[in-house]
């Protein structure tokens, strides 16, 4: 092992040699595990991975994503989920849809430009992702402020077992919808509560790779929300 | 042909057409088929066929070389030569081919361009080398380079005098002022082997290629690596060494053929 | 603006070149990443008078769809020189040289990109030479490598490039434009130092076999040095943030106690 946890590495740098496993964003050549991206080292037992600092969103089944309707087809919508692949939201995957409807009815449900929270139902290397807006918490978004975050920072925003996002929600009282694709929706009781939440998100984006972030977020939230 | 077959056979030191790893395919050069050109050569390298025509015309020099003739090389991958060639302006492959052939001829100072000056800054002879690929079965670079040299060596232009900065033609023919004989040798990396003069089947499975052009003194005058995979440091050095040794063999065949 | 210069002495009696360099010195390189807002990854390279911008968009949906490959991303590359980049204005239309360089630069970077991560997409690489003074394809490759890494595209390793040449009969590193024009040979080389393999090698001029081997070894060593700088540049802004906030945390905690 040539690196330690949270060490910053570049592509092609040697992480470890020998019986180690090649985890996320690493590759193995012979006996050596190398980093494949710019990021911080993560070590789980024998498995070495790199948490990238930048990168585009690649869908995974089960992800909650926030997307924008870009086109309406015969039986569904094409949604931009900020991935290199356009997502398909079939009409059958929404509530309140009964039987065949025309394009006019579809646009009344979700029109081009609308924001939708959905879940990734299917995605593999041979076809574009299939998403669903049927389910609790899913569907059209009507209010709130939209923040774009690098998708690689979303795990840090959520935190272990949701600890970080809970901290922010409790600390600001804001309602936050986190899309795995890096699109975040914040709606709070007040402008201040929204601003504090957004400030926290930006701080996490900037400092995701550092130590002591949770403490600093706590301090920041307390300071910003003092008036509430 | 499946990649596995080519690679497996090479591991045993064999190529699918029974050649040795350093052997060129059978080569035939026909000189002077195109009367309207000053010089022409048709090469058959295995099943690859390339026709090169040389034309010499009066023109203007480039501003930074006012007392030198002009050399210009163009290559056409005409659609009839391969199911993969489409009509249209030269694509990146045609451009690369032309520029590598050009560099070989230009950097070796193969043509004495100063001899082609008629009146400095005003008039010079322009040598057009047009490479026409007629049948693509691999290694277009070497085929084009060999045929280009043969066409240049056998080219004849009208005899002339220069009077008051003007060309006055007179009866008779003269050869072009050729003073060096550059020869390109291309190697393909397949699996762990380097093979000389890859056929199309071999090109389709190769990971990278290296072209080395050398002159009659054994000096390197142009190099070009191609392909989406890398070469090791050793492979580059090895490739250069093999190319230099094969070039002299090929060179004598070209000069022989051009004499006829 | 110099329309036509008289030949200058390429190596003076002290063994120094026109810009004061020794034969084995390359022009220092200034590298910066993340310089453009809209691109997914970007880098700016300054080397001698060279000013080069490299940008990456991708992986993104393939347009037109038919160029997409089922199992991996397609890497596309455009090397282009701005009309004001050269002493005499250059037409903006892509020249044959730019088209050839676009191809060889793409091939220099392809081995480094782990394109299997993103099937059916394209990764578009743009290199714009804003000012040129010899060795632009090498600086372009060095910068493009940074831009790809900056975009978060998975890579086997970085690629670094430099050129060796021959001036006044001697092997010299990193020729400027004037040296290339009056010199006897120029050989650009790109290496992926992680596995020490060659992803680009071209040469024009005249070199003996021995000169080639000597120059080649110098080029390889230099690429390794440039590579160290590339890695540092990719990490530096994150390290700066780390230092800034972790220091502040320490002081804050100290105050609260």
Label this structure with key terms.
heterotrimer, B: 260 residues, alpha+beta, Ribosomal Protein S5, domain 2, six-stranded mixed β-sheet, four-stranded antiparallel β-sheet, C: 257 residues, five-stranded mixed β-sheet, 4 helices, globular
CATH topology of chain C: Ribosomal Protein S5, domain 2
Poorly predicted parts of chain C: none
Taking the sheet with the most strands of chain A, its summary is: 6 strands, antiparallel
Going by helix content, strand content and strand pairing, the class of chain A is: alpha+beta
* Strand line-up of the largest beta sheet of chain C: 1-2-3-5-4
Total helical elements of chain C: 4
How much of the polypeptide of chain A forms β-strand, as a percent range? 25-35%
By CATH reckoning, the class of chain C would read Alpha Beta
Task: Please give the number of β-strands of chain A.
Answer: 16
Instruction: Tell me the helix content of chain C.
Output: 25-40%
Using the 3D structure, state the CATH architecture of chain C: 2-Layer Sandwich
Number of strands of chain C: 9
CATH fold label of the largest domain in chain A: Ribosomal Protein S8, Chain: A, domain 1
- List the uncertain runs of chain A: none
Element pattern of chain C in H and E? EEEEHEHEEHEEH
Q: So, the CATH homologous superfamily of the largest domain in chain A?
A: K Homology domain, type 1
The figure for the number of domains of chain C is 1
Judging from the principal axes of the Cα atoms, what is the shape of chain C? globular
Summarize the main sheet of chain C. 5 strands, mixed
Chart the SSEs and their pairings.
The complex is a heterotrimer of chains A (228), B (260) and C (257).
Chain A: E1 8-9, E2 14-17, E3 21-22, E4 26-29, E5 32-35, E6 39-44, E7 47-52, E8 64-72, E9 76-80, E10 87-90, H1 103-109, E11 115-124, E12 127-132, E13 139-140, E14 145-148, H2 154-158, H3 163-172, E15 175-178, E16 183-187, H4 191-207, H5 213-224
Parallel strand pairs in A: 3-7
Antiparallel strand pairs in A: 1-6, 2-5, 4-5, 6-7, 8-9, 8-11, 9-10, 11-12, 11-13, 14-16, 15-16
Helix pairs in contact in A: 3-4, 3-5, 4-5
Chain B: H1 3-11, E1 27-31, E2 39-45, E3 48-59, E4 70-77, H2 92-107, E5 117-119, E6 123-135, H3 140-154, E7 156-163, E8 166-175, E9 183-190, E10 193-196, H4 200-205, E11 208-214, E12 220-226, E13 231-232, H5 233-259
Parallel strand pairs in B: 4-6
Antiparallel strand pairs in B: 1-2, 2-3, 3-6, 5-6, 7-8, 9-10, 9-11, 11-12
Helix pairs in contact in B: 2-3, 3-5
Chain C: E1 29-33, E2 41-47, E3 50-61, E4 74-81, H1 96-109, E5 121-131, H2 136-150, E6 160-167, E7 170-173, H3 177-182, E8 185-192, E9 197-207, H4 209-256
Parallel strand pairs in C: 4-5
Antiparallel strand pairs in C: 1-2, 2-3, 3-5, 6-7, 6-8, 8-9
